[in-house]
């Protein structure tokens, strides 16, 4: 795993982002078993995920899995291999039930309740099944595609082209003043008083650092320096990878929130952030922080609690 520490001095993430945790073996060779995965399936367990990205999570035991044999003697149609741990293989299947069910949670609500194994399985399952839902036809010739390689690729029935799961890189940056203030902003669609750090998608031909500078300038109108990497987290809503950075800006520079995208932006003192962190989700001075399952929370907490 890539270190979360700044290259040089500075703060780090307070802990690994909750959706970055994983323990299973995901080696590519496992996906090309000559028997089509039948041997792995025989000792496998299945994670069911519904169309809304929810699975069953037990308050005591965590992620609920089902014996693969319950779905047949060979990998069920639509099954995707998530990985192997010890003698157990883990697979995901789309559940056809999309109504309200007790104990079924999505990643935002349930990701933080899972252990390292469960978090990695559920995050991968949501992203991989979601990709299959939207990759049924070839982007080149328009013919139907079929699942291959234990669900880690699709092959076109027309031109034989293979396509692999897509991940969209997005930067997320904690901008601070080098001392005791952090720049936070809110989108108009967020819950009342919710503020977070700034984020945006990487464009074609753009480096990650250039994206940080551009997105901060576009969203709040300030220039940043000392751009440094913190860590990353998969965010399959539907298929993002959040790449965390920190940067420094001048708090005296005027803030110009992007019209229609940023409802408000403001500099917040460390003491207020610390109070908001201790409030367990309640607002402090009009500030409510992002949920703990997000990398944004880990970045903010890491900055607020760091002692130089």
UniProtKB/TrEMBL annotation:
Keywords: Hydrolase, Magnesium, Metal-binding, NAD. The gene is nudC. One of its GO terms (molecular function) is RNA NAD-cap (NMN-forming) hydrolase activity. It comes from Saccharopolyspora hirsuta. One of its GO terms (cellular component) is cytosol. It comes from the Bacteria. It catalyses: a 5'-end NAD(+)-phospho-ribonucleoside in mRNA + H2O = a 5'-end phospho-adenosine-phospho-ribonucleoside in mRNA + beta-nicotinamide D-ribonucleotide + 2 H(+). PROSITE patterns: NUDIX, NUDIX_BOX. Residues 165-291 form the Nudix hydrolase domain. It is an enzyme of class 3 (hydrolase). GO terms for biological process: NAD+ catabolic process; NADP+ catabolic process. This is NAD(+) diphosphatase. InterPro entries: NAD-cap_RNA_hydrolase_NudC, NudC-like_C, NUDIX_hydrolase-like_dom_sf, NUDIX_hydrolase_CS, NUDIX_hydrolase_dom, Znr_NADH_PPase.
